[in-house]
Sequence to fold (262 residues):
Amino acid sequence: MTAAPGAPWVQFMQTERLRVPSDTIRAALVRRLRVSSGISEEDVREIEALPIAVRQYPAETPVVRDGERATECCLIVEGFCARSKTIASGKRQILSLHIPGEIPDLMSLFLHVMDHELSTLTPCTLGFISHDTLRRLHQRRPVVAEMFWRDTLIDAAMFREWIVNVGQRPAPARLAHVMIELRERLRVIGRVDGNTFEMPLTQEQIGEALGITAVHANRVIKQLRQEGIVEFQRGRVTVLDEQKFFELADFDGRYLHQSPTL
Fold:
């Protein structure tokens, strides 16, 4: 990965290596691939053998900036990240949310200049795999290359759903849909606790994800609570009425392709 000019703090973080157990680094990735792609034990061993440099990033910090040339792909070990675009006026649109076990910049293997920003939402532990290492793995294990290609196609499916969500659903349904999607993805990696799950976004960030203002986002959150659908507090969502939650979101999870048969 290349540090942005004039950002010495990024260069410092790149030299800050952490000692994290190998199984912890790859656990969520392997668990997710078992569900979505049916990864074999032989391919699990190949992934577990990948050299990964682990670094710690503060919240709200760019990992790869729009316009940079990346030389590594980023695996989220712990924390939440987002992809976004910022227009000339300074307004930002969050394009997708990313959780442990995901590699949100796989496209940088083939799209050499980033056309959006990947940044942390929370303090994150991130693992970096060089492009050269991934290319060698893909040549050696074509099935793994297919699984990562499937991952990028699932990303595209989620982008399509987010376009529909922002463009066609009213704000309360937009928020419910984003919440359910996040919950279903977290469930795969064992990060849902009963009817509660993490969604560590500020009201401003929720607005950026839904295409509304922070004030409007605040009103929508209050509406969902007053209608007895969900409670959102301190970065955690508690579902109060599952049926109303699904009906409001108009949610069909096929686009997440959480099975090798989908």
